[in-house]
Specification:
Layout lengths: L13 H17 L22 E4 L6 E6 L16 E8 L7 E9 L6 E6 L7 E8 L2 E2 L3 E4 L11 E6 L10 H6 L6 E4 L25 H12 L2 H9 L2 E3 L22 H18 L17 E5 L3 E5 L15 E3 L14 H12 L5 E5 L16 E3 L7 H13 L5 E5 L5 E7 L9 E7 L13 H10 L3 E5 L2 E8 L3 E9 L9 E10 L6 E2 L1
Parallel strand pairs: 9-10, 10-11, 13-15, 15-17, 17-19
Antiparallel strand pairs: 1-2, 2-5, 3-4, 3-6, 6-7, 6-8, 9-21, 12-13, 14-16, 18-19, 18-20, 21-22, 22-23, 23-24
């Protein structure tokens, strides 16, 4: 059968998408049907684990284990027969895998790209485990994962890394080679796992693929990215919590609106359905995130005991369209429109409820785009990017004033997207002559997107003069490392000096501390 349910003559309606994907969801939940016969005599192709392994979305007693069978990753179908295969999995409490505590079998079905999402439960809280997969006589590499503390526990410390934006062509994933040495408890990935456009022919490693639009196209693009050894190692070192931004589908898309005005919403939803399915197939996500046509429930939260609650947002799927005109627009002309939303009503209500009821010492909001209102042009006339929260000013004010009025404990916003490092204080009112910080924002730079960067103290000087809420800026590649205790949150900005060749040294360019109860940034 075809790999994506596209009709021959007309675009699918949302209802048809949902009905068609329901059978796929039933398949993934209940095993194989006659339409996808399980292989019993077909030999497993050699080296089917070339895309690596991963774990994600842990709880206090369970974790998702992921792999995808693809002996020839750059081919349609990954080099696998169009049959379903049994894939064994094991979890042990030692790296040698000699003390197996859980094991089972999952089904890798071609209609889901031969991906595996094994939800392993019955694990002990707050501890490390090791895992691997088998298929026939083939054995995967061994990965490390962990469970979270119990909800009522009071951990002394959490150490985690933040990464995003890993475009293939501009540079190597050197930052991941260092990230794995940080020994993070978890990794947060905040979007742009792949980029959808034509290959950059002038990049240091062009992949040659044209812009991706179909399910097979997206699968191959993920396979190209996942072939990188440093990315595979980063997935194998700790569990990941992932969310997307725009490039997993289409640059700057908003809900059902493509960046191209000649593409109708119905046409774009076909592409979004393919992109969302490929995203699920390639990420360590739970069954609750299984896509239904062009819809995928990605926003969710997790608890690290009573130390920290994390709200992971989706600022693409539910947003209204950006303002007409260029992305960079004068602030004076941006309307404060109560009908414009970047979250959607349901997600916003969910966020406010989760923040209001949180028992945690720290409340993190992991999301995609710049929340602070930054004047990006020197001079009198402020210029803002309307693809960010600045284009949804009414909702930004609503969120920040809620943090203040509801007295949310220690809110910290974690952001990706713009390939730069920023440390910002988030004010209750950016227009007030005496604004008060109500939260802080750490924006992490890219792993590789935009190629080699520079550290520009002169630009920081200009930014500080025009934007006193900004406390730090840096334009190199890298990642964040955050260490959280009951009394303090510390963020280190880790950067590599170049990505267009291998072997760049790592630097800690800046470190900031937030003291519990004080929403001000302090440079260490």
């Amino acid at each position: 059968m075809p790999s994506t349910p596209l009709p021959p003559r007309r675009p699918l309606t949302r209802r048809e998408f949902i009905a068609g994907s329901a059978s796929l969801a039933a398949l993934a939940l209940g095993g194989c049907s006659a339409a996808a016969t399980r292989a019993t005599r077909t030999q497993v192709p050699a080296q089917p684990f070339k895309l690596g392994i991963a774990s994600g979305d842990p709880s206090s007693d369970s974790v998702v284990l992921w792999t995808r069978l693809a002996p020839r990753p750059a081919e349609v179908g990954g080099g696998m027969p169009q049959e379903a295969f049994d894939v064994g999995w094991q979890v042990a409490d030692d790296e040698a895998m000699s003390r197996v505590v859980r094991s089972g079998t999952a089904v890798a079905d071609p209609r889901w790209g031969h991906s595996v999402h094994a939800e392993v439960d019955g694990l002990r809280s707050d501890r490390w485990y090791w895992y691997r997969f088998t298929c026939g006589d083939e054995v995967s590499a061994t990965g490390r994962t962990r469970t979270l503390p119990n909800a009522g526990a009071s951990p002394d410390k959490l150490r985690f890394a933040v990464a995003n934006c890993q475009k293939w062509e501009p540079g190597y994933y050197t930052a991941y080679e260092y990230l794995i040495r940080e020994h993070p408890d978890i990794v947060l990935f905040l979007g742009d796992y792949i980029y959808e456009k034509d290959s950059d022919s002038d990049g240091v490693r062009p992949h040659g693929q044209k812009e991706v639009k179909t399910l097979d196209d997206y699968r191959i693009r993920y396979a190209i990215y996942k072939s990188d050894p440093a990315l595979q190692a980063a997935h194998a070192v700790a569990p990941w919590f992932v969310t997307w931004d725009d490039h997993e589908v289409n640059n700057d898309y908003a809900g059902a609106i493509s960046e191209r005005p000649d593409v109708t919403p119905a046409e774009f939803l076909q592409r979004r359905a393919a992109a969302y399915q490929a995203y699920y197939e390639n990420m360590p996500l739970r069954r609750t995130a299984m896509p239904s046509g062009p819809d995928l429930q990605l926003y969710r939260r997790f608890e690290y005991g009573r130390l920290a609650r994390f709200h992971i947002l989706d600022t693409r799927q539910y947003r209204t369209d950006q303002l007409a005109g260029p992305r960079m627009q004068p602030l004076a002309g941006v309307p404060v429109d109560p009908g414009a939303t970047i979250l959607g009503a349901e997600q916003k209500a969910w966020l406010f409820d989760g923040l209001r009821q949180s028992p945690a010492a720290w409340n993190a909001i992991a999301q995609q785009v710049l929340m602070a209102r930054i004047d990006l042009r020197e001079g009198v006339d402020a210029l803002v990017d309307v693809d960010k929260w600045a284009g949804y000013e009414h909702e930004r004010r609503e969120v920040l004033r809620f943090l203040e009025s509801a007295r949310i404990r220690n809110p910290v916003v974690l952001t990706g997207d713009i390939h730069e490092n920023w440390a910002n204080e988030l004010w209750n009112d950016f227009d007030s002559p005496e604004p008060r910080p109500v939260a802080v924002e750490f924006l992490g730079t890219s792993i590789s997107s935009s190629g080699d960067g520079t550290d520009r103290p002169d630009y920081l000087e200009d930014l500080l003069r025009e934007n006193p809420c900004v406390k730090y800026h840096n334009n190199e590649r890298g990642y964040l490392v955050c260490e959280v205790t009951p009394k303090q949150w510390r963020t280190d900005f880790k950067t590599v000096e170049y990505v267009t060749r291998r072997g760049a040294p790592l630097n800690t360019r800046a470190s900031f501390v937030i003291e519990s109860g004080d929403p001000h940034l302090h440079l260490v």
